[in-house]
Design goal:
The chain is of the alpha/beta class. It contains 18 helices and 20 strands. The longest helix is centred in the last third of the chain and has 17 residues. The protein binds adenosine-5'-diphosphate and alpha-D-glucopyranose.
Length: 481
């Protein structure tokens, strides 16, 4: 079985969030199961100009017609790993830009054209690929149009499977952009792409895929409710028969404190000395020396409304009263970047904020912290809490989506000798967050018990094998249907 995964981000080529981790590691996991897998992504400026990445140009040129205009592009070829091809769709007019989707928090106004072009190009180049796919996997709104394009192509293969990593990003095209999508007017209805007077590229993927996946079982339920559906809950309920939640996996070859070369010292569940070194180094880096006896809370993530940083801001006084230190790394929405900077200014003795995207620093924070805080409003899966577990950094999370599915809330005792793995809170409220952090700091004050929880988390297994098998079974079903 051959799988082609189309994604707007693939680690290590281009990344803004967890989608890239998944698009970079799922194909490797499928390959380990004996399937053939490849990825295809736009040829962004940062990828073409990165001397560490090499792609060949085999002269595969094509044109795509968009609203009557012929736009040319080419297909570049490289490798994600030995035996896992990575293809880039090159079109400098659309992708030779400083950002993937926009700059300075402002989306490129021609995103519908850009990703309609990408989706069309993927279908167009299929016959050129050495391994013609049986299954074409789309990921999020940027690739939603693949599904109707496949449906109208009349092709028997590949069959389209659409993965929703985040229903909060609808990929909206205003009515005047409709012509560039190049679909029959009859599909721009409530049963098709129409979304409150606009067209949603995400909805295109939902409606026209053969199977639909959300990245955790809880999120599959949440997207069918008015609270979690972002206006698409009706569509999700309508298509619930083809919807399944499959939890993301973690690539422990990349995320493992025993082998991670980017952290200060390595460590394992049975020898945590290195973790203390990581903590001290992180405190020094953050200008918070002398606080190594206090619980250190880390946060790493996109600064977007979804991630609940406003709760941290609101809770800040109570939170620091617990005696903890806080180190934040994030970038994204200028509003939340501002909140974060302001927090550091108000609590310079206990809090440090790094604005930017920096994987090495992310690793140092995940390794060096005692607790990792993820107070999301919603969280389709979340990878940072799973990295936290592996690095012995106890997650404190809101009980939503994948956060709810991966963390067991500390019950205050461990009757069966099985330690819970973190702290959860339900209400999206500052006081609920503070309460969860208070419970966590109380356990921290009991070193033997805290260590037991740390070790329990490190032994949790969220490797890809299990999830990749679920994907394989789903692909099997889709091909048999
Ligand atoms: P999301 O996909 O919603 O952003 P996830 O928890 O699934 O959330 O994945 C986030 C991924 O992006 C993780 O690998 C995390 O380490 C990484 N990441 C997010 N923000 C940053 C940042 N500012 N610097 C480095 N890595 C980041
Ligand atoms: C998204 C979600 C996140 C998920 C990631 C990978 O960006 O916000 O929860 O882990 O995609 O699926």
């Amino acid at each position: 079985m051959q799988i082609l995964i189309a994604s707007p981000e693939v680690r290590p080529l281009a990344q803004t969030g967890g989608l890239a981790d998944v698009a970079g590691s799922l194909p490797l996991a499928l390959t380990r199961l004996g399937l053939g897998a490849a990825v295809i992504m736009p040829a962004y400026q940062s990828v073409l100009s990165n001397p560490a990445l090499s792609f060949e140009d085999p002269g595969l040129n094509f044109t795509v017609n968009q609203a009557g205009e012929n736009i040319s592009g080419s297909l570049l070829r490289g490798e994600l790993a030995p035996g896992v091809p990575a293809y880039l769709v090159r079109c400098d007019r659309f992708f030779d830009r400083p950002g993937f989707y926009g700059t300075g928090g402002v989306e490129y106004p021609d995103n519908p054209e850009r990703f309609a072009f990408f989706s069309k190009a993927v279908i167009k180049v299929l016959p050129q690929l050495a391994d013609y796919p049986d299954i074409l996997v789309g990921n999020d709104w940027q690739t939603g149009l693949l599904m109707p394009y496949l449906a109208v192509s009349g092709l028997e293969r590949p069959r389209g499977v659409f993965i929703i990593h985040n229903q909060g990003y609808l990929g909206l095209a205003p009515p005047e952009k409709w012509p560039v999508l190049d679909l029959p007017e009859t599909v721009n209805t409530i049963d098709g792409l129409e979304y409150f007077g606009q067209s949603s590229l995400l909805k295109a993927g939902i409606v026209y895929s053969r199977a639909l996946v959300t990245v955790s079982p809880s999120y599959a339920l949440e997207v069918q409710t008015p609270e979690g559906g972002q206006g698409l809950d009706g569509a999700m309920r309508h298509h619930a028969h083809k919807l399944v939640g499959i939890l993301n996996g973690v690539d422990y070859n990349l995320w493992n404190p025993e082998t991670d070369k980017q952290i200060t010292a390595n460590y394992s569940p049975n020898n945590l000395k290195g973790k203390l070194k990581c903590k001290k180094a992180l405190l020094a880096e953050a200008g918070l020396k002398g606080r190594s006896q206090r619980p250190l809370v880390g946060m790493v993530g996109r600064l977007a409304g979804q991630k609940g940083f406003n709760l941290v801001d609101e809770a800040s006084a109570d939170l620091f009263r617990l005696g903890l230190s806080l180190v934040v790394l994030g970038s994204g929405d200028p509003f939340y970047e501002g909140l974060a900077r302001n927090l550091e200014q108000r609590y310079p003795e206990a809090g440090k904020v790094f604005i930017g995207y920096n994987e090495a620093l992310a690793r140092r924070i995940i390794a060096g912290s005692d607790l990792v805080l993820i107070p999301s409003m919603y969280e389709p899966c979340g990878l940072v809490q799973m990295y936290g577990l592996k690095y012995g950094t106890v997650p404190v999370v809101r009980a939503v989506g994948g956060l709810n599915d991966t963390i067991r809330d500390f019950a205050g005792h461990n009757p069966e000798g099985r330690w819970d793995t973190g702290f959860k809170f339900s209400q999206f409220q500052a006081k609920a967050l503070v309460l969860a952090l208070r419970r966590a700091t109380e356990l921290y004050a009991r070193p033997a018990d805290f260590k037991a929880m740390v070790q329990a988390g490190m032994k949790e297994d969220f490797s890809w094998d299990n999830s990749a098998r679920q994907y394989r079974d789903l692909f099997d079903q889709v091909l048999r249907a």
